[in-house]
């Protein structure tokens, strides 16, 4: 699941639980505070990333920093392999200044390498933000620019266009995808080709995500992602009873979840 969020001051996501998935939060504008029942707390700013493994259970709050007017970003939910559904929760933050990038096509294309590799440049060594194998790139193409990006064969892959009009594919299969639209690619093949018309009035920008298929059933019940209906209902029961991973939820409430601006 991919959420392109825009949360003004006074709104946000107060205390809520998760189990069974991981999230990648990539902030484009503003600042977002986070706090959870393990004692973790902090703020990410534009260009920063936060990776969260919910595992067997987490209760947290994600609220816009009250010093910011616009808080815009992307949050990707990544399913956990069934054997890791009940793992310990954890967080990993990454500052925008730490994320490698590469220029392609004579500087007409910029690739921010959140995870994976592009044109001879890799993401941070030994950095495995999620238990599921994924690739995530932020690609900006100036008018007249083109990129041929390798993707692992038989992985699931999609792109979400943040801005401009981007032409995907080659030959007769070329398709123009506009802002705020989503395109899913066939599993066959190992490249994604994208370009922006040289006569375009603005650059194109998209998020390219790919992941190794888990070949498991996905049962989502609100903030819980499991593999069976019974496990999803058990997650609800465990959260309500503060047990089996939710013990620290008993009597806990975040400070930032109560933050509001009138």
TrEMBL record:
Record domain Pirin N-terminal: where: 10-78
Keyword Metal-binding: yes
Record-annotated Pirin C-terminal domain positions: 136-245
UniProt-listed SUPFAM superfamilies: RmlC-like cupins (SSF51182)
Classification via Pfam families: Pirin, Pirin_C
InterPro entries: Pirin, Pirin_C_dom, Pirin_N_dom, RmlC-like_jellyroll, RmlC_Cupin_sf
Cofactor(s) in the UniProt record: Fe cation
Alphabetical UniProt keywords: Iron, Metal-binding
GO MF, one annotated term: metal ion binding
Binding site for Fe cation: 16, 18, 60, 62
Family from the record: Belongs to the pirin family.
Protein name: Pirin
């Amino acid at each position: 699941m991919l959420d392109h969020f825009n949360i003004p001051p006074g709104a946000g996501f107060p205390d809520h639980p998760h189990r069974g998935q991981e999230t990648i939060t990539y902030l484009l504008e503003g600042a977002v505070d986070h706090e959870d029942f393990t004692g973790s707390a902090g703020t990410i700013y534009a260009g920063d990333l936060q990776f969260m493994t919910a595992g067997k259970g987490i209760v947290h709050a994600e609220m816009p920093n009250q010093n910011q007017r616009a808080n815009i970003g992307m949050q990707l939910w990544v399913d956990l392999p069934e054997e890791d559904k009940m793992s310990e929760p954890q967080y990993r933050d990454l500052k925008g200044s730490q994320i490698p990038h590469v220029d392609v096509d004579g500087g007409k294309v910029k690739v921010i390498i959140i995870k994976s590799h592009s044109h001879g440049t890799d993401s941070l060594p030994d950095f495995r933000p999620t238990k599921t194998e994924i690739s995530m790139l932020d690609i900006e193409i100036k008018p007249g620019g083109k990129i041929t990006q390798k993707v692992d064969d038989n992985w699931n892959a999609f792109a979400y266009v943040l801005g401009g009009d981007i032409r995907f594919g080659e030959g007769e299969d070329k398709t123009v995808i506009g802002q705020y639209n989503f395109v899913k690619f066939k599993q066959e093949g190992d490249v994604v080709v994208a370009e922006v018309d040289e006569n375009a009035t603005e650059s194109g920008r998209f998020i390219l995500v790919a992941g190794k298929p888990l070949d498991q059933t996905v049962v989502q019940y609100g903030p819980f992602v499991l593999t069976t209906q019974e496990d999803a209902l058990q997650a609800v029961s465990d959260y309500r009873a503060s047990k089996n991973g939710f013990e620290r939820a008993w009597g806990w409430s975040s400070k930032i979840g109560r933050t509001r601006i009138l």
